[in-house]
Amino acid sequence: MAQAALSETQLDIAEKELVRLKVAKAARLKDKVKYKEDNPIEFFTRPNPPQAELIEAWTIPQFKTFSFTGGNRLGKTTIGSIIAISTLMGYWPWSGEKLPVPHNQPRKVRYIGQDWEKHVKAVVVPALRQWWPKARPVEVRKNNNGVDAYWKDLATGSTLEIMSNKQESELHEGWEGDLIVFDEPPTRPVYIANARGLIDRAGRELICATLLKEAWIDREIIKKRNEDGTPDRTVFNVHGEIYDNVGYGLTEEAVEQFATKLTAEERDARLLGKPSYLSGLVCPRFSRKLHVIDRFVVPSHWPVDVAIDVHPRKNQAILFTATDPHNMRYIIREVWENGDGEWIADKIIKIAGDMHLRINRIVCDPLAKGDSNNENTTYDKILRRLFSHNLLLETATKDKDSGIIEINNHLWGPNKRPSLFVFSDCVRTIYEIEGWMYDKESGKPQKEADDMMENLYRTLLLDTVYVDPYDEWPEADEEDRDVVNPVTGY
Length: 490
Fold this sequence. Notes:
Blueprint: H1 2-38, H2 49-58, E1 65-70, H3 76-89, E2 108-113, H4 116-131, E3 138-142, E4 148-153, E5 159-164, E6 179-183, H5 188-195, E7 204-209, H6 215-222, E8 235-240, H7 252-259, H8 264-270, H9 288-291, E9 292-293, E10 303-309, E11 316-323, E12 329-337, H10 341-354, E13 358-364, H11 378-387, E14 394-395, H12 400-411, E15 420-423, H13 427-435, H14 451-460, H15 478-481
Parallel strand pairs: 1-7, 1-8, 2-5, 2-6, 6-7, 9-15, 10-13, 12-15, 13-14
Antiparallel strand pairs: 3-4, 4-5, 10-11, 11-12
Helix pairs in contact: 3-4, 10-11, 12-14
């Protein structure tokens, strides 16, 4: 009996210990859940695709201006808040990776919303409070509008100041800091007043916005250029659709329910993030990130097509497009200068020689032929001069509609990859393709600033296919082929 009682006592103790361990484990789990709820920024490991793209680019010191644009409910205020808080801390809270800040002193951040009541107080401040880690001490002070507008990270001494886009631009002057976050588009005077404050600290700026009517932001910031016309490589742009956030806080059913309430134009703007002023782009798929590349030496075995668009009273447009062995196209050179027919031919001959190009086909605007009774047209002048250098000239097609389809197919093909690229110093071509619009009244492509585009569609309609230079000498036997390539030298 004693032995049985002892066993019962031991069993009772074991059961109690098991219960105690379960309670302790539950408490630890509860503490972990509570900690995660209180410090969500430390667990921000599953951003949506556009947010992830921005976060990756943020660690690259080269970039100074960022835009995060797109449809409604894309998570723009979320990513703006997270980047602002992370900058104050100096690292990504979920990984510990340091951020590229060019000094060790406390950081200074400005967060600029729209009006105080409907946006700053109702949207911006709640987002900052949601993502600020409760384990991190912070001092918050209100402004005269009763808004929590002054935040100080007590661990680093870094500060965050919230301002309104509705304030006079003069009130934004006289500040200097490391980062400005614009939540929704600022007015241009407010933007300029704040941007001046980034100069001393080589700071950064981030515009998180659904662009509806702010054409100047697209023109002056997203498509910013250097003085020589080349794209500004310190600018990084991310664009997303509301659908990118499905599965990251939104459901497809909720998005579709919202979509039923919108007009076709509103759907483009609010779901896809396409502003109305860009709805008429001829080449909407063109992207500097995807299609603009740095210049490299074009291999001499790549075939190069040349297209000429002539004008009697303005610059002549000449475009050189190379095709690689995978039939990818590269716009490698452009000419936008004044000159007559002989000058055009000489320019082509010189560029081909200087760059050691394998010229394939040369096509010219049919209008260059002018009057059929005139034997000395611009076309004839180009033809004679090229022929003297064993180069042939052809009349280009005028099938613009098919050509535009071909351009867009190369910009973004059925396999969701581009097959057309532009060297970054072909500034006229980039300028035209970014701004080529359909006329609202006629529905046809506008005739303004379309000269390189005329050349481009005519070139792509040639449908050039790469052919190895050996195949151009069928009489060459196999033994000769295995020795040396007469064009490449190997």
